[in-house]
Amino acid sequence: MITAPLSKIGVTGSIGMNIRPHIVIIGAGFGGLAAAMKLAGNDVRVTLIDRQNHHLFQPLLYQLATASVDASAIAWPVRALFRKHSNVDCLMGEITGIDTDRKCVLLKNDEVHFDQLIIATGNVPNYFGNAALEKHTLPLKKLEHALDIRNRVLGAFERCEHIDNSVGDENGINFVIVGGGPAGVETAGAVAELTRQALKQDFKNIDPKKTRIILIEAGERILAAFHPKLSDYSRKALEKMGVEIWCNRMVVDCDEYGLTIDDEYLPAESVIWAAGIVASPAAKWLGIETDRSGRIAVDDNLQIKGFNDIYAIGDLALVTGKNGQPLPGLAPVAKQQGKYVAKRILTGEKASAKPFKYFDGGIQATIGRDAAIIQYGRFRLTGRLAWWAWSMAHIYFLITVRSRLSMFSSWLWSCFTMQRHSRLIIGRGEN
Amino acid sequence: MITAPLSKIGVTGSIGMNIRPHIVIIGAGFGGLAAAMKLAGNDVRVTLIDRQNHHLFQPLLYQLATASVDASAIAWPVRALFRKHSNVDCLMGEITGIDTDRKCVLLKNDEVHFDQLIIATGNVPNYFGNAALEKHTLPLKKLEHALDIRNRVLGAFERCEHIDNSVGDENGINFVIVGGGPAGVETAGAVAELTRQALKQDFKNIDPKKTRIILIEAGERILAAFHPKLSDYSRKALEKMGVEIWCNRMVVDCDEYGLTIDDEYLPAESVIWAAGIVASPAAKWLGIETDRSGRIAVDDNLQIKGFNDIYAIGDLALVTGKNGQPLPGLAPVAKQQGKYVAKRILTGEKASAKPFKYFDGGIQATIGRDAAIIQYGRFRLTGRLAWWAWSMAHIYFLITVRSRLSMFSSWLWSCFTMQRHSRLIIGRGEN
Questions:
Q1: B4 vs A contacts (CB less than 8 Å)
Q2: Could you tell me the sign of the dihedral formed by the alpha carbons of B256, B262, B264, B268, in that order?
Q3: CATH 3.50.50.60: which residues of chain B?
Q4: How open is the CA angle A325-A304-A339, to the nearest 5 degrees?
Q5: Residue A172 has what pLDDT?
Q6: Stretch A182-193: mean pLDDT, rounded?
Q7: pTM given for the model
C-alpha cells in the first residue's frame, strides 16, 4: 500500500561514513547465503537481495510436497539469519536489470549501487520450449510449488473418495514424475510412502494403494550421475515400494488430463516436472551469451569474463571440474563458490592467485525409509546405513537449531507412526 | 481431473447391509467434529462433509497469522482423526442445497442421502452489507486468511525496508484491527509482540517499533462479554504493549490505502476484520427465516423447527441460555451441542425428554505473554497465572498429541528466544 518515494540505497560515499566497499549479492540460495555469511562481520557492507523473504533448503522440498514437514522446517527468513550482523542488509525485491556502467542493480522501484556484485540466482525448470509442459506440469523449485503439489496429491484422493468403488479401474489415480535424477527419485519415493503407508487407512471408498506412481526417465537408467550398481539398487528399491520406472521414454506433450509419452497417451492426475533445469536468466541482465544450459562463462576466480567486480556462482556459473566436465548443480558446489568469492573479496589481490577448486564430498540420494545411496569416489553405500548417514547429514546442514529439532522430531514422528502430520489442503489464490 | 460418473453415496437399503441409520454431518468445526466423535464406533453410519480437508482450531488461528506456529499445529486432516472408525466416512465437498423431501444433501457432483442430518456450518464474517469492507479488509476465519495476514504484515516491513529512514514518518506502518472482541484483542496483542519483539533486530533501515497498531471498537469498551474490571485490565495491558485502543468509533468505509473511521481517514497497511460474524447461510438451503445474526430457531432438542431429523448446532443455532440471552458463539457451546445431538440420535426417544442445557465453563482471552483474563461466574483471574491457565487449557484442547507437542515446543521456543519461527512469505495465487 505504501508508495512513498524510494531511496537509492547504498550509494557509496553519499554519507561520509559509508566508505567501506559495498558487496551486493543477488540470490539467497546456498551460494549467495554462504557468501553473505562469510562476509558478515567483516569490514564491508553487504546487501543480500532475493525475490523471497526466505532461504529455502531445496534438497528437502519434496518432503513438504509430500506432507512430511512444515514449510518452516525447511525455509528461514533471510533477515533473521543476519540479525546479529549490522553490516548485512537484506532486501526482498525483484531484479529488473543491471547497469554495469553505473554499477547499479536495478529493482522495480529502487536501485542499489555496488562495488562488487555476486550473482547467485540459481536455476529454473527447463521445459525445452514446450509451453504445454510449462502450463500443465508441476515444478518443484519453490515453497509455493511444493504446496501446489501437496494440494494436488491430497485433493486427488479427496475427489476420488466420492467415486463409487465398484467403478473399478476408474478410481485409479496416476501420479507421474518426469525426470530420474535425485529430485525425481526422491519425490517418487516420498509419494509412494505417502500413498502406500500414510493414507492407507484413511479412505473408505478407495484404496490409495491402487495409485500408480510412474517415474519417467529419458535416459537409459535413473540416477545417471551415480555408479550403475547404485542406479540398479535404487530402481529395485523404488519398484519394491510400488513405483513403476519407465526408462528410455520421452515426454513429448501434456494437457490437463494427462501426458503423451513417445506416442502413448497416459491419463494422469498430476505430472511433476523434475526433468531438467536451466540457469536463471541472469545473463540477460548483462547482455551476454550463455551455454545451452544458460550458464555464464567465468574465469578461474569465478569472475564473469569481460566484467570486473562481477562474479557468478552456483548453478549459474559454468566451471570445469577435474574430470573436464562442468561442475554439477549441487548445493556443496554453490556453497564452496560463495565462500571462495567472499574470501577473495575480503583478501583482495592476495587470493587471486589461487583459482577456485571444488572439494568433492561425494553425492547421495534417498529413495525412502531405510533406503538411500551414497557415492564418494570409489566408495559406495546403500541401505539403512546410507539412509541414516543421509538423514544425519541433512539435519546437520539445516541452517538453524530450531529447524534441526523440528525436522528431527517430524522424522521421528513419522518413523514411529507412519503418519504425515502436514496433510493440509490450503487453498491458493482464492478465499 | 477425474470426471467419472459419481455414485449416490449412502442410499439407505440400496445394498442389503446398509440398514444402519445414516447420519450426515455438515461442517467439521467444533460442533460437527464433537458429534462425529460421539457417533464413531456406534451402530450408525456417519458421513462428515466439509469444504476443507481439515478441522481448524480457530481460537489459535491468530497465532498462525502472526507467525508463531505452523498450520499443522492448529489444523488436522479430518479423515486422519477417524482413521480407526470404519463407520465414519469423510467427504470434502461444497454443499449446494438440501432436498428435504428426498432427504438428500446436494453437492456439486454428488448427493448424499441422510436419515438424520446435523448442520454445523458455523459462521462467516459480517460486513454489514458493505462491499468495500469485504474487499479491502482481511478476515480471520480460515487457514488461508491467516496466511494472507501473515504475508501482508511481513510483506509490509519488507517493502518499508527499501524506504530511506530519513523520510521519517513516511515509513510508519499502521495495522488496524477492527473489533474489540477476543479475536480482535488477541490478534492486536500478537501483532504487537511480533513487531515490538520478534522483528525488532531484523530491520536495519526501519524501526518496527514505530508501527502503529490500532484496535477499533464500536462499543464503549473492549471485551464487552467480560466484567468491566477485566476489560480495563486488558486495555491497560494492550496499551503497555503499544496498542492504541479507540472505543466508540465506527468504521464506515475502506479502500486500498486505508479506512474511514467516523469522519476521519486513516491510512493503513492492513485492516484485519474481526468486527462481526453472522451465521453461515445454511438457512437458505432449507428456505427458512433466521434472526438478524443469521441463526436458525431450534427446539429444546436442537431440532430445527418444522423439520424432523434435521438439527442445527453451534453458531448456526439460536439457543437461549439461562440468562434469557442467546448462547454465545463459543467452541464449548458447539461441542456440547454436538455431543448432545449425537447422544440423542443414539438413544432415540429416551433422550428427547431432556432438553439441551449449556454447562458454562467460563470465558477467557489472552492479551500477550504473561497477560490473560479468565472469568467464571464471579471468579476472575488476570496476569501471569491466567496466561498459564489459558495456555494449558488450549494445549489440552488441541486434538492430537502431535499438535500438543508441536504447539508446546513452539511456545516454549518463542518464550525463550522471543522469536517467531514461521515468518515465511509464501505467495498465494501465483508462482
A1: 163, 167, 170-171
A2: negative
A3: 8-125+278-352
A4: 75
A5: 66
A6: 93
A7: 0.88
